[in-house]
Amino acid sequence: MSTYDVAVIGSGPGGYVAAIRCAQLGMKTAIIEKYSTLGGTCLNVGCIPSKALLDSSHHYEHAVKHFADHGIEIPGDVKINLEKMIARKQAVVDQTTGGIDFLMKKNKIERYEGVGSFKDSTHVNIAKSDSSVETIEAKNIIIATGSKPSSLPFITIDKKRVITSTEALKLKEIPKHMVIIGGGVIGLELGQVYRRLGAEVSVVEYMDRIIPGMDKALSRELQKVMKKQGVKFYTSHKVTGVKATAKEVTVTADDKKGNPVEFKGDYCLVSVGRRPFTDGLNIEASGVKLTDRGQVEVNDHLQTSVSNIYAIGDVIKGAMLAHKAEEEGVFVAETLAGQKPHIDYNLIPGVVYTWPEVAAVGKTEEELKEAGVKYKSGQFPFRALGRSRASADLDGFVKILADETTDEVLGVHMIGARCADLIAEAVTAMEFRASAEDISRMSHAHPTFTEAIKEAALAATDNRPLHV
């Protein structure tokens, strides 16, 4: 029987990063993955493929709607080759997952392909595709099995007309009308992809606003911009049923007044969040406890109820984000090595990769009000920037929330071009407990989108932005 210092079950961003860091720290490490490719949901059917399609569809939309404004004339009609677009997406996925395979070999991490399940707290059975079972022993085990798309009890996902994000990433035709249940990150990103390609898109959301976990100002602005792009929104709508035929889907819902309404389309994307995935782990055999929400229960050290077993990523509490899982993977590896790592969960940024992009870190205005924290707010619109006018990316703003007394930055919320990258400046500033004035006195290159952060900081400091 092979023995290891650490065995990682699951090879998503949390799992493979944990394995790499454990190996770097001198531990003999194994990683167990049931699929033939590494990378988990994020690399295979999540973050990476969705961004590939977002970029491809963005190029198409620019060619059709905006190239002429830049003096670029294309003879004839611009056409979509969906098959080629999906093939490019898959090529990006294959290259990325292949890179993870290379990293496993580089770091001398033993890879096992099969379904990992607990035999007991130090032994893992690996059920392989040829029906054989191999057992390995590990001093420590990290559960990194991630999450799966959630659904509603009355919805049957047939993967043909009623689909999840997995199927939406490999459609063979552009929908005529895609009805999306859920106005969160995944639904909005994929909705924008197919809206750009010509589909009618209707978003049905139970809450009174889209991206409900983010600052209300971001929700309002994103909905306003996406409505201009042609996406239809139905907030405060409770879905009551989904019925599919061979060619059509009917979604029924109650509106905010309780009146029944109906949506007909050729595809229904169910995007109501994700659930922790522990199926097949035989977790009872390990002694590890689950919460009433199906999450693996962990303490502040990400240690489960069994001292040598840890859990990270989507399978535990907190935001279901790839970069959060990565931080936790490093945290556990360094803890096992006797180091004293830390994670500040308040400083894990959230991003929506629509265009304009949406990004945030720290407290929202609603959270500060609820906590009774006295704060000041500074906001600056992208349309006031020279860089935004040059690229015609005028939508959006940056908002900085700072403590009224100390001026320490408590939250940064932005929507606009390249905000997925810009948010890193805010995270860095808040990691070092910067004040709004600190940011306002930093030199920002001109012309850049980052100047909006400086101007918002000036607005928050003493209401003195320079360019509005």
Keyword list:
7-stranded mixed β-sheet; 468 residues; FAD/NAD(P)-binding domain; 25% strand; globular; alpha/beta; 5-stranded parallel β-sheet
Describe the structure.
The chain is an alpha/beta fold and 468 residues long. It folds into 3 domains: 3-149 and 275-343, FAD/NAD(P)-binding domain; 162-272, FAD/NAD(P)-binding domain, CATH 3.50.50; 347-462, FAD/NAD-linked reductase, C-terminal dimerisation domain (Enolase-like, domain 1), CATH 3.30.390. 32% of the residues lie in helices and 25% in strands. The chain is built from 13 helices and 22 strands. It has helices at 13-24, 40-45, 47-65, 82-106, 165-168, 185-196, 216-228, 322-336, 365-371, 386-391, 419-431, 436-440, 451-462; strands at residues 3-9, 29-33, 110-113, 115-120, 123-127, 133-143, 147-149, 162-163, 177-181, 200-204, 232-234, 238-244, 249-254, 260-265, 267-270, 274-276, 309-311, 350-352, 357-362, 375-381, 397-403, 409-416. Strands 1, 2, 3, 4, 5, 6 and 17 form a 7-stranded mixed β-sheet that branches. Helix 1 (13-24) links the parallel strand 1 (3-9) and strand 2 (29-33). Helix 3 runs antiparallel to helix 4 (82-106). The chain is globular, with a radius of gyration of 24 Å. The model has no long low-confidence stretch (mean pLDDT 97).
